[in-house]
Amino acid sequence: MVPNRAAKPRHLVNLALGFAIGLVTGVALALLAENLDTTLYTAEQIESATQMETVGQIPAAKEDLTIARLGAGHYPQLESFRRLRTNILATSDGGTQVALLTSAKRGEGKSTVAANLAVTVAQSGREVVVVDCDLRLPTVHKLFDLPNKRGLTNVLAGEVQVDEAIQYSAFPRVQVVTSGPLPPNPTELLGSQRMLDLIEQLKSQFDFIILDTPALLSVADAAVLAPAVDNVILVVAQSQTRRGDVQTVRRQLSSVRVKSMEVVIN
User: Fold this and answer.
1) In sequence order, what DSSP letters do the residues of the chain get, joined into one string?
2) By C-alpha distance, which of 165, 134, 130, 131 is closest to 150?
3) Residues 108, 122: Cα–Cα separation, whole Å
4) Distances (CA, A) of 165 to 63, 84, 134, 176, 204
């Protein structure tokens, strides 16, 4: 059938349809991207994923952060570690406190947080010891610029006494037990009775004990030590860690019945 008049484009209708289709498509793509990207970008997302109390938030530093010092360009970080110290010490019952620091994956800054926490706790007048329980990729000796010829592995192997393995750091009231030579059986050593005895011995000498352990998703080393401590502190790297990773870590920690689980957002 031949039309009686020429067809004309309906600009308003086409414009409205195009706008509606574009809007729906944009919303759909945004929702898809949000569901696919499980990276934790905010403190609220981290708290929701971990279901743990946040005891500290460490701001980003312009340069690589080692041990924050007043007057060395790390003042905001130093204050954040002081707040972290206050929050952690608030849970103490007055006796020696043992804190285990770990993370979901490597590279989230747990060793740096452990070292800075040790220094700031010591500034409150407490005697502190940091024990490098990362017997695979130890870094505590590097942070404190100490030799690592002997340390925790030598004590657990019965080669030296703990007093022979403890080293003084450059910071008042902060002593360190480095990892020592890397062993073939880290998990077995950390889960041994010798390790439990060592923790008890350190309790008689120090007010605060920090155990720096490997990332939980890599190995089970932190999980075997977790039941023996007062606080398990999970260091979560903001805008780097994924939701599923911290949820898996929480399940692992819950299965070994830890006394307390808290989060530091790095």
Assistant:
1) ---SS-----HHHHHHHHHHHHHHHHHHHHHHHHHH--B--SHHHHHHHH-SEEEEEPPP-SS--SS--TTTT-HHHHHHHHHHHHHHHTT--SS-EEEEEEESSTTSSHHHHHHHHHHHHHTTT--EEEEE--SSS--HHHHTT---SSSHHHHHTTSS-HHHHEEE-SSTTEEEE---SPPS-HHHHHTSHHHHHHHHHHHTT-SEEEEE---TTT-SHHHHHGGGSSEEEEEE-TTTSBHHHHHHHHHHHHHTT-S-EEEEE-
2) 165
3) 24
4) 32, 28, 16, 8, 16
Mean pLDDT by 10 residues, the chain (266 residues): 56 61 58 59 77 83 62 72 91 86 88 93 95 95 95 96 95 96 94 96 96 90 92 84 83 84 86
Cα Rg for the chain, rounded, in angstroms? 25
